Amino acid sequence: MRDMPQDRRPTRIQKKNRAAILEAALDVFSTHGFRGSTVDQIAGAAGLSKPNLLYYFPSKEAIFTALLSGLLDTWLDPLRSLNPDGDPMEEILSYVKRKLQMSRDFPRESRLFANEIVQGAPRMFDALSTDLKALVDEKTKVLEGWMDTGQIKRTHPHHLLFSIWSLTQHYADFDVQVRVLMGEEDPFDAAPEFLETLYRRLLKP
Amino acid sequence: MRDMPQDRRPTRIQKKNRAAILEAALDVFSTHGFRGSTVDQIAGAAGLSKPNLLYYFPSKEAIFTALLSGLLDTWLDPLRSLNPDGDPMEEILSYVKRKLQMSRDFPRESRLFANEIVQGAPRMFDALSTDLKALVDEKTKVLEGWMDTGQIKRTHPHHLLFSIWSLTQHYADFDVQVRVLMGEEDPFDAAPEFLETLYRRLLKP
DNA sequence: GTCTATACGCTGATAGAC
DNA sequence: GTCTATCAGCGTATAGAC
Fold first, then answer.
1. Range of the domain at A54
2. What is the pLDDT of residue A126?
3. Interatomic CA–C1' length for residue B49 and nucleotide D12, angstroms
4. Can you give the distance from the CA of residue A50 to the C1' of nucleotide D7 in angstroms?
5. With contact defined as beta carbons under 8 Å apart, do A84 and A92 qualify?
6. Are residues B98 and B174 in the same domain?
7. A187 pLDDT above the threshold of 60
8. Would the pTM count as exceeding 0.85?
9. C-alpha span between A108 and A28 (Å, rounded)
10. How many domains is chain B built from?
11. Count of A–B CB contacts within 8 Å?
12. A1-43 pLDDT, tens per residue?
């Protein structure tokens, strides 16, 4: 690895530029995917020249990796805070709610991951099979515990999790389609109630 | 428009090659997206040279367009056959079932559309706002009719449709993630029952 | 109808002046 | 730290021989 500016305490300018690059990269990568994005686009969006951008990150790949690893943690936070000692139904409903809020407030992040996973997760496979897998294993056990004690109805815990992910992220990932089909109506007006009703009926003992 | 071979009754070879190209294109486009795919890749997968491929289709864009318009009809068939005169619950459940089968049997088609829509549907926007919109307008009316007469519980018809799409297509679009997290277990073993239960509980009057 | 050769713009990345 | 200039390679597409 070559010396990179951030190795020895970054100046204010360096911090600002790195942040601007990552912000621009999120914009570009999330709408065009990795290969569909160009360094030029990112540099332009960040207000830098292409060589200047490549002074901060050694390669396009490096930008993408830095972006992903920075976001994954935040992205998994809602699931991480599913509390085994809380009230099962309320825990699940508030998880659904938080995921839906993230789709509304951070749609680019959702699409970034969607792009990557639809294409077979070539740059994220490791993170999936280690970090995410461990977290999911832990939380499906929690769900199963709640089913065992009859606090929620018995269903397949993995499919239950997948359903939450797909139902909530759909509003970010397929945003264009959703908006075309709903016209003026804001999807996020009715979605919370729809999802709450769905999970109450599905899980009420 | 320039003369293209298929204009005057195609020979057997031409038919075969066009089919091979579209098959290869489905493979490549669905895993890399439009910009992530190269004509070379498609030609290679189809067993043709690059110039030879471009004899059959004038451009990469043309391949993609031909592919999309050929697939969209089939893709919407399940929704089209939702029968207003059938039993509401059974109609919806069999729609869900067919969509799930399509995710299992035609995951590439699902990912092709997913890639396109996640990236803002730059090449599909028209099809969405005309064909799909018309079909969805028609079918949401059917759903509303069933709710009005109390044959199924009242929910938001658009969100109901979105839920069916996202829940079923998730198994195709996020296949890598699903399989990493479920390990040996085949997702399609338990999914049908999970979804049937979900929609019975959601919609039973 | 199919191939070889090739034009030519774009993309990622580097060199070197300031 | 930032810029201009530039390179090598890839990607789409075409010309023209066979």
1. 12-58
2. 97
3. 14
4. 15
5. no
6. yes
7. yes
8. yes
9. 9
10. 2
11. 151
12. 333 444 456 788 888 999 999 999 999 999 999 999 999 999 9
